[in-house]
Amino acid sequence: MLKLTIAFLAIAIASINAFAIPEAQVASKFMSEILPYMKSNYTRSQFEGAGGLKINYFYRQVENPKGVIIVTPGQGEASLKYAELLYDMKDWGYSIYIIDHRGQGLSDKTLPGTTRSHVRKFEHYIQDYTKFVTEIVHPENYRHSMIVAHSMGGAIASGFLQQNPTAIKAAVLSAPMIEINTGKWGPILASLFSNLLNFAGKSTDLAPGQSPYVANAPFANNMVTSSEARHQAKVSLYNAMPEMAVGGATVSWVKESLNFTTALRQKDSVYSVPTRIFQGGRDELVMPRGHNQICALSRAVCGIVKFPEAQHEILMEKDSIRNSALATIKSFLQETANQ
User: Fold this and answer.
1) Would the N or C end of the chain have less CB density within 10 A of its end CB?
2) Residue ranges covered by each domain of the chain
3) CATH code matching the domain that covers 2-337, chosen among 3.40.50.2300, 3.40.50.1820, 3.40.190.10, 3.40.50.2000
4) CA 95 to mean position of chain CA atoms
5) Which residues pair with 173 in a beta bridge?
6) pTM metric for this prediction
7) For the segment 279-295, what is each residue's pLDDT rounded down to a tens digit?
8) Are 161 and 273 in contact (CB under 8 A)?
9) 70 - beta bridge partners?
């Protein structure tokens, strides 16, 4: 397993300009400049996912692309939340696709009329994503292809890569949900309890410790970023489009996620293509142990890039962290494009 630190990337990062909009301006420009850019330059479409749900996605195709990037959000995240990332990538020369997972963003809700994060089978995420990549994106039509995924999106992408080892040329997984931090419960007890609650007919109830969506949640209460500006941009987005807001997870989501990720960690060679896993030193939601384990079992060059000061949302952190992460992605794109 290859281990990397930000210090080793200093020379590469220094040669790459800072990204588009400084953190101090993000909160004010997200709704007035960043989001309008995405709405003006990206096309919205849908496809039919597992069980007939309509799955939303956005895409931007460029002339003579260097390749394609498939952006894959995390649990509860709308694709529009990634407008700043897409804005930063606009001059990279790649066509870009981004999906709203079932129950999220502008895709059909899995529990209509609620903000609960719910899934009946985790495999439904994989089925949706497989159709999205293989039938909508068609990465084989591009010279290069890369997945950039966050958290639950990283788990979904990992499941896809394990089942489709040659479909994509490279992957960057930011704080992928390979092992959920179950706190004092521990993974075995948490899995057992969620399975028992599900069996008792509580599958659509909020799981213990989960809460409904709270509008205008204060920055001090957040556990995912140290950037107040980017936290406020997210709040502004969901205030403007409350239909996209997602709150706590259901018993079924927890059960399915724990069962899926536990099985995933036991598989040999999940990654058969060059892969980078971003790991936040202050991440309270996923465990680094899972990243280390899945990398060690993979046949490809799987490198862990550590961001010691980062919380969970590395791609939406303060500039000193986020710029390093974006520079790493850009450098990795260039490196893998030549292989």
Assistant:
1) C
2) 2-337
3) 3.40.50.1820
4) 18
5) 149, 277
6) 0.94
7) 999 999 999 999 999 99
8) yes
9) 97, 147
